[in-house]
Amino acid sequence: MDFRHRTATGQASHGGRTPKRAKPLKRLAKARRARDKPPPAMAARIRNVCLIHSSLGPAFAGLGIAATNLDPPAGVVSLPQLLAGLPEPPDCVIHQEHLGKRVILTDVEAAPCPILFWARDPHLNGFWQRHYARLFDAVASTQPQQQAVPLSEAGLPRTAWITWNGTVRPFVPFADRRHELAFVGRITPHRRRRTWFAEHLAAAGLVPCQDAHGPALAAVYDDARACPNECIAGEVNQRLFEAASSGCPPVTERQPPGVETLFVPGREALYYGDVLELDEHIRFLAGHPEAAEAMGRAAHAAVADRHLPRHRAQALLALAEAAAASPGRPAAGPQAREALALTLFALWRAEHLPLGAPEIWERLSAAPPTPAVAAALLHTAAGLGSRDLYAHLAGACLARPDLRATPHVAAVACLAGYRLGDPEAARRAYAAFVGATGKARAARLDDPFDALVFFAAALEGDNRDAAPGTTFDPKKLVPDNAAECLIAAKLLRPEALEPDRRLAAILRRHPGSQAERVGLLSNLSLHRPGDWSLGLELALANLAAFRREPGVEEALVAAEAAMAQGQAARFARRLAAADPAGRLAAVLAGRGMALPAAQDGP
């Protein structure tokens, strides 16, 4: 089925042709063909690299590698055009994600050498990088969990964990440092958990600094004896290395899995799981200045030994040589058009790139009509407010068995129908999905709320539970995953509790969402005051969100409810599983709440 019936402006498309490519493509075609020949048995030697938005040029030079750094402006940029100004084709191109200057490369498959992408914020940008990564021979990530998910889910043959780096700095003795704690990072109303973090540590002397950069930032950590670190989404962040470079002992979150391999626990850094453990570490460092300074010196030495720019350049070089010796399988032809179109669509929908709907439409129309492309086209039609365009696309989707059975396509087709004021089309999409999936009995959908709740479950079952890093406005956008469906449903019926319950369960799997979970669980607990299990979950969410006193109070209330119901032993076992070190149990005991031993009781 051809989805390229019309352009976004309503004009007939030209067979889905891609925009005319630049002349540098022809000049590089011969080099590309040479690259695609079977590789030699010995490892390839990289002698010169082209860096895009990278500061590692001096580090590569120190390794004997000629490096040219390009700094294109934000937007969509043709890689052959960038390379055209170089005196000769490079042996490797490394495109480093720039957090403030978003650049998307096109015509990557025409490059004459291996192309690497270094994802710096995949924990927040995985929703578009999972598509973009398909264009490259290899991908590096600052986050350990991104080695497999979601970047390598895109079918990449080669990924690597290459994280942030520190810098060489002189060590300032602790006797010359004026402050107990230091934290450099933005604190805004949109980051409630970080706000609670800063408010809690104010009693310990923390005065956050929000606007320091470069030498000014390093000076903040040079003048402090500990750096409590908070992460936006459970990621390895640059602050960990900035503090260690100054010999300021990091006290950081025990996530993501693998973070403890960067700095040795108890010797080079301290790790915490909630505010109780954070407080314990802060008290220890303040009460043991010699041990704190020894940890600072060890962290400082660890940066010099393992975490300098040259170490990251060496890792990138090894990845590039592996890709050159054994070429991967980056997307090419129609698959490359699909990967690029989906990348640009995701950025456009999230308003991360100032692209126009017509350009997005043309890109998607030129891509193979896969389920992901079909869903993106439906989103685009809904965004344009075109019922005619939507009707054509929805009809084309429902005519294909593979598409009408796909939860993602069916959900967008149904929910877009409601958004555009066409409930009959929405019900047809639902009926087609139910029929295609072979359900003998299906729930009746009376209104958009029912459809949102139904497809939230379908999308969650299809591993589309949420998209960290995106913002969702249910008044403007059609939901694309389970969390967005539930947010939209909650807006339609604020009194309904089912969206809160299911959304809280989804967010449990996504680090950094504790503030949102606190709100959802608080609302649920108001309606279920006797549910001690829910009360304990709320207590733990508060403690993970740096709300110590509310967390302890909720735990006390939950414990009292469990005892009143004769379930104190069950409460104790549940608490021990969630708090194996016994910190919360000790706090409750100090408040007069005596619990049975965790192993006692039925």
Automatic annotation (TrEMBL):
One Pfam family matching this protein: Glyco_trans_1_2
Gene3D superfamilies recorded: Glycogen Phosphorylase B
InterPro entries xrefs: YkvP/CgeB_Glyco_trans-like
TM helices/strands, residue ranges: none
Region entry Disordered, spans: 1-40
Domain of life: Bacteria
Protein's recorded name: Spore protein YkvP/CgeB glycosyl transferase-like domain-containing protein
Basic residues bias locations: 17-35
Coiled-coil zones: none
Domain Spore protein YkvP/CgeB glycosyl transferase-like: 214-318
Organism: Solidesulfovibrio magneticus (strain ATCC 700980 / DSM 13731 / RS-1) (Desulfovibrio magneticus)
